[in-house]
Input
Amino acid sequence: MALDKAAVAHIGSLARIRLSEAELEPLASELSHILDWVEQLNEVDTAGVPPMASAAAASLPMRGDMVTDGGCPEEILGNAPRVARGFFTVPKVVE
Amino acid sequence: MSFGSLLALNLAEARDGLARKAFSARELAAAYNDAVAEAKPLNAYITPTPERALAMADAADERLARGAALPLDGIPIAVKDLFCTKGILTTAGSHILDGFHPPYESTVTEKLWQAGAVMLGKANLDEFAMGSSTTTSWYGPVENPWRRPGDNQPLVPGGSSGGSAAAVAARAALAAIGTDTGGSIRQPASFCGIVGLKPTYGRCSRWGVVAYASSLDHPGPIGRTVLDVAIMLGAMAGHDPRDSTSAPVAVPDFEAAISGDIRGLRVGIPKEYRIDGMPGEIEALWQRGVEWLREAGAEAVEISLPMTKYALPAYYIIAPAEASSNLARYDGVRFGLRVEGDSLDAMYELTRAAGFGAEVRRRVLIGTYVLSAGYYDAYYLKAQRVRTLIARDFAKAFEHVDCILTPTAPSAAFAIGENTDDPIAMYLNDVFTVPANLAGLPAISVPAGLSGDGLPLGLQITGRAFDEETVLRVAEVLESAASFRHLPGFIAGGR
Output
């Protein structure tokens, strides 16, 4: 599967990673190279084989639905680059 | 005891020395703090914590004095900087976690401190544990304490737990913890001439470990001997309700499993691991390993794991897919780096462009692509189906054998800067280690010999799920037979 520059730019925007025009061509070639290599999986007949998401038990354990932590907003906000009045802040998203 | 002879003790010997009061935990911690400083040129640590080490050692001495010693009391260890440590800078080797001081402690480190272990510092690693050479860290590459005799070229320690492995090999830590997603404990152990164990998936909690690929990430111990990693594992293992994939199974006495007796055990030798281009000396070492186990009374059985060659390409779909999802949290809002932009999306994009290094970006992009509409079935589901077949290969083999013997890696340590032009050349380092991650099986690397150019090579034992005891028992027999006594060119305290 060969990716072109437009496809790489699209993947970059899906992944929220800004890519410069100069990076697109080398990335297109690197990513295409990796995709070509993984395509050897098509040699394997997987008809009727279920997908495996984890080596752990298939069912998730249940726990009581109760509050076991919290009440520490200062600790939670302590690592944030920008805070105001007990909230994380981000650039304006509504007009 | 002199500085050098104190550092020369392994974990089990140091534990005995502390119990006998031959030296204090404070003396041991002070010696290791000095060793960490002496080993600084290796760049094995991102954040040394010497004062914390002394305070923890004093607490250990107080318990030792009143006869209430804990299992790891006074044992100084390095912690891969992927484990969250409360109030101590935790970087994952990434620019994007600049200044992150976790408000909580990972389960595994919490268990180690509760067992009396002493923290020397946070060890360097490939960024977000993505790499096989510890050259992708924002904090610079780690150097292997080993060099080719007569050659000054710095070599990689392997990766991604390269700082942990280099520290243990250079005697700048008595033991260490790492994580293994595709070989990141075992391959550096092989490259540095020490022992590294990836336990069964679910044996050690992932809670508080910065996530790379959640279904493949395994915390585990690194040490100088098989016994040392067994002792470490005993303190790290156990069910944790905070990790939904943590297994609710009892923790056996791993130390007691090391009996030296493997008579009658059946050891599988998978023919598919004889890959093209593998150096003859690794093939020869593997053969010697077979003979050592035979001489100890085990039976070698040829087995087939036909899906082996597809493990690596399946891994390089599944791991990036999980990484692209896990790393979505680095958005410049709640922690770490933020690069301002004129909109929310611009802020996200600029932060992530500046904060992620080249290999992390590559994997996030690949992962995003294979999960995107139209490609999900062709790549991601296909890889997960192949993963099922790989796990079935092992399940079938374990109907006939008790463990599997293979090389750990297809080469010895290479020079810093090698294998960087082609990502796939770097990925091939993990060809023998990745299958155990996909299947979730325990596997250990034991130093077994030297390459023609004087560098350590490891052999790997893989076992049944939750049968670390057999893995450790066989590994110790291999270790005794190989009697690997070589030391790297650099060790703290001098040779």
Summary: Chain B touches chain A through 71 residues (CB under 8 Å).
